[in-house]
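Lecture 7 notes: from sequence to structure.
We start with the chain below.
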Amino acid sequence: MVGFGDLAWLFASYKKYMWFLYRVNTVQASVMSLNYVYLLLQI
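Predicted structure tokens for the same chain:
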């Protein structure tokens, strides 16, 4: 039987994981746009 504590822990780790993915995607997106601007400036 899965306890309420286990469910809460699963939910918390899932939220942390989603937050981590969101942060990584945000950083990746800003790096991509910076690279794009850099390439435009090179031309």
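Points to note: Residues 4-42 form the longest helix (39 residues). The mean pLDDT is 91.
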